[in-house]
Amino acid sequence: MKPKTQVSIFSTATFVLLSAPLFSGAAPETPKTTQDTLTSSDIERLMTEISNWGRWGKDDQLGAINLITPTKRLQAAALVEEGISVSLARNAQTEETIDNPFPYQHTMIRTGQEEGDSVMDTYSVSYHGLAHTHLDALCHIFYQGKMYNGFPKEDVTEDGCPREGIEILKDGIFTRGILIDIPRLKGVPYLEPGTPIYAADLEAWERKTGIRASSGDVIFVRTGRWARQAALGAWDVMGNAAGLHASVATWLKERDIAMIGSDAANDVTPSGIEGNSYPLHRLAIVGLGVHMFDNCDLEALSEAAAQRDRWEFLLTVAPIPIPGGTGSPVNPIATF
Fold it and tell me: Measured at the alpha carbon of residue 333, what is the angle toward residues 79 and 300, in degrees to the nearest 5?
């Protein structure tokens, strides 16, 4: 989601979710259901119904990462058969475009044109937004003044997040990842902006592939955002992107999904829910304690998985452990 100011990846910042009246139509091939008519009151009800607050103790800061158990990690390791790895990250984008108002800044501070036997540089980026592959910490989003597990937003200061900062994940993520490729399901190269994805779509993909998401898994939902950009050019993804409908939060709770990711911001935009932009961010991060990967590049993974007809893999991720950080640029790796 779009930040107000540019910051270094070595600084801390927080982001309060924006709200605006929005509207979205239904996806092609997806029947109309009452899910299309969710209201702000429904979001409030869902927040209570799916809540994981207190599930792992009143002081818990890991949220659904608790579902990635030692047994789950061993099962994930057993998925490696070929030793072939595929990145799920977009290369760092250094040019300003309509969907990347705050590009990476790469500055050389010592080059080969100078004396010495080394070269050095610096990186700087405001990584939250809809351009750069990153992982949201649980302190990134508030709902009614609270973070996951009820911690107050006032805890977050200019020094960062004293709880639920990204350094909580310093030991890394190691579990089963699953690619849910909705364009392949629907027989199209990519979804059009504004197309909502429902739990019924996720389950249709499970039937098609024979892979069922379960406790401790990380799901990546491909919309084909980067394939569409390659074909038609960049567009303002901030207010117009395919993604998960807010009602999917119930499915995430039922399956005990540990983390989710997509090639945009996970949420369909416009959300279609008056007064709520990015409602799934609220429900997943604040309600479920589910960390989110935004802006992954799932094109290479889609091709690799299709070639093998294998949609599950070992997922490994190591975020930068910035104390109090609201997230981190990341390079998730799928290994077959």
Answer: 100
